[in-house]
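Deliverable D2.4 — example input (structure tokens):
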């Protein structure tokens, strides 16, 4: 099976997950590329495209939408993955328009994976300022959340990404 794993990673979290997904596809012909390096005209030549992004303000990267507009032929199968630092799940909501476009073009969605990622792109001072705008009990809750996601994706998260990859080719 010819597979493309392509991603946008603003902090490096999504890149780590993409690399683990590639490892989970051992024995397959896999290309791993950043979104900016993908030739949209080539996407239809893959049996499966696994598309990933960090979630920024509840949305996938604009780079993905830019690439989507340029695809001329869609693959038979597609899967999605994301990283985010929110306690909410964004998998379905963030990719909604993209999933619809792939399905409209005849691609079958075969999987979806999400992973917590430490929000390393926001400076500590900015986080503190944002927290200071919250009521005291919410500040404490969010501080605990920031501690919980420190160091993520971790080894278990990356192992889960490998297992996800294996599951979608079985």
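Example output (designed residues):
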């Amino acid at each position: 099976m010819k597979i493309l794993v392509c991603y946008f990673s603003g902090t490096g979290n999504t890149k780590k997950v993409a690399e683990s997904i590639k490892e989970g596809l051992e024995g397959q012909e896999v290309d791993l590329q950043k979104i900016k390096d993908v030739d949209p005209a080539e996407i239809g030549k893959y049996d499966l495209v696994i598309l990933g992004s960090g979630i920024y303000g509840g949305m996938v990267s604009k780079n993905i939408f830019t690439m989507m507009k340029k695809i001329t032929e869609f693959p038979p199968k597609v899967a999605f993955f994301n990283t985010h630092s929110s306690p909410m799940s964004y998998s379905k909501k963030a990719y909604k328009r993209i999933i619809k476009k792939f399905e409209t073009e005849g691609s079958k969605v075969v999987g979806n994976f999400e992973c917590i990622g430490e929000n390393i792109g926001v400076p500590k001072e900015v986080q503190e300022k944002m927290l200071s705008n919250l009521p005291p009990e919410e500040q404490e809750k969010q501080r605990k959340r920031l501690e919980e996601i420190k160091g993520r994706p971790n080894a278990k998260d990356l192992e889960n990404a490998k297992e996800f990859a294996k599951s979608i080719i079985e």
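The mean pLDDT is 91.
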